[in-house]
Amino acid sequence: MVRCFYGQMEIMRTTWTDKNPGRCFWGYPEEDSTCGFVGWITPQMCERSKSIIPGLLRSINKLKTEVGKLKEENQMFKYDIGKIKEEKSKLKLYLICSWVFFGFVFFFLMK
Length: 111
Fold this sequence. Notes:
Blueprint: E1 11-16, E2 21-27, E3 39-40, H1 47-110
Antiparallel strand pairs: 1-2, 2-3
């Protein structure tokens, strides 16, 4: 484990800034620490990687948002399907009852 300038234990963290996407470093456990930077763990990436990774991360985040929306929409459709199945069962029962009633009426009128 690494200690900072003030003797506090540092943890391995990852930065996702446009300048250093996915780069690991030793940092203070709290986000808003004033301790300062201790040291990089991974080497600096090439310029091409620095320009591509942020775009890929934005694409991933956009797709995750879209997946979340589609899951919500799917849940609504499942609810609608359940309601439609209930209505189908009721209508089937009404149809059977109407045919039974029609049968009795027809039977008594034919006498």
